[in-house]
Write a structure and sequence with these properties.
single chain; alpha/beta; inorganic pyrophosphatase (n-terminal core); Diaminopimelate Epimerase, Chain A, domain 1; six-stranded mixed sheet; binds manganese (II) ion
Length: about 325
């Protein structure tokens, strides 16, 4: 057993339930979407009603190959009172689900049993059963271990879905969150029939032309504030390129690899401010701490927050981050 006590509690909760709601976060990524779909497939053939809901944001088009992806619904369309078990996946806290998150969690707690399965260090343990494993590179890594505990056989479709979440969160097993166990779990999924070719092509190679046009413009606007490299995506840029916001997701990782940058930020212009996504390449800068200064959170090398206000708030953010990431011991000048 990988998670003896949590797996037993989750098994019991599922057995007791008649209708299950699976929920994941806003601006969904591969791990969020794959977590829902994998859990859904694992319950296939089951007599229970199972619905899947996501916080606001576009489902990335490159995940279109995943089975049952068209069954995903927006959280706003869900009547949570219909469900007696609600499972939050890949969501560190209720706000991560979006503006409706806290109301949803409150309603879920009033009517249903609530389970929280996640790998974020910043998870607030908001559920009745919390299966949290910050050592896991992806929620789909936890789910693979959980499904094994529950005795669910991995079909090629489930394996492909779980592998999608792992590949997505590890950028193809390349992030420092990738552990020996991540590789072992991946090997298990591959042997169970995961279509790795399809996943790697869909996540990392094939992209629409609109993405290239958006990237060209966003990279063209890239600039430094101190050692922070950053750029912005606006509504105008999206309409000029014909891209949707999710097509900009990889830009911040790309920026983080720039020599001389200690952290990278992507600012998504919103009517009331910005959504910010941050990355760092090395151990020296913990972007979850930086995001925390602006009421955000995440992982040490990938985190996010929101800014509300105008250009002056954006400037305050940029200046604050630049100041925070300045090397603490200044390099002595003209010493040699
Ligand atoms: Mn994740």
């Amino acid at each position: 057993m990988n998670y003896p006590s949590e797996s037993a509690q989750i098994r019991e909760a599922i057995q007791r339930s008649k209708s299950i709601l699976l929920v994941s976060h806003a601006n969904p990524d591969a791990d969020a979407v794959a977590s829902l779909l994998a859990f859904r497939q694992a319950c296939n053939g089951d007599q229970r009603t199972i619905s899947m809901a996501l916080g606001p944001g576009t489902v990335p088009e490159n995940l279109g190959y995943l089975p049952a992806i068209d069954e995903l619904q927006p959280v706003a369309a869900i009547d949570v009172e219909q469900f007696d078990l609600v499972v939050f996946l890949d969501s560190a806290d209720e706000d991560r689900v979006g503006p409706e998150g806290s109301a949803l969690l409150e309603a879920a707690k009033a009517n249903a049993h609530v389970i929280n399965i996640d790998h974020h260090v910043t998870n607030t343990r908001y559920a009745d059963v919390n299966l949290l494993d910050a050592e896991a590179a992806a929620t789909c890594e936890i789910l693979t271990l959980l499904l094994s505990d529950l005795g669910v056989e991995l079909s090629p479709a489930i394996a492909t879905t779980l592998m999608t979440g792992i590949q997505g969160d590890t950028l193809g097993l390349r992030t420092p969150s990738t552990t020996g166990r991540t590789l072992e779990v991946s090997a298990t999924l591959l042997r169970a029939g995961a279509d790795l070719d399809k996943i790697v092509d869909s996540l990392f190679r094939v992209r629409p032309y609109s993405t290239l046009k958006l990237w060209a413009e966003a990279l063209g606007k890239t600039t430094f504030t101190g050692d922070l490299i950053w750029t912005e995506v606006t509504e105008d840029m999206l309409s000029r390129s014909g891209a949707d916001e999710s097509e900009a997701e990889g830009i911040v990782n790309f920026l983080a690899g720039t020599e001389g940058a200690r952290a990278a930020a992507m600012l998504y212009r919103k009517p009331d401010g910005w959504r910010v996504s941050m990355r760092s390449l090395g151990d020296e800068v913990d972007v979850s701490e930086l995001a925390g200064l602006f009421d955000g959170g995440g992982h040490s090398r990938a985190a996010g927050c929101r800014l509300s206000g105008d250009e002056s708030e954006r400037q305050r953010f940029l200046d604050t981050i630049a100041e925070q990431i300045r090397p603490s011991i200044a390099t002595p000048a003209n010493q040699n």
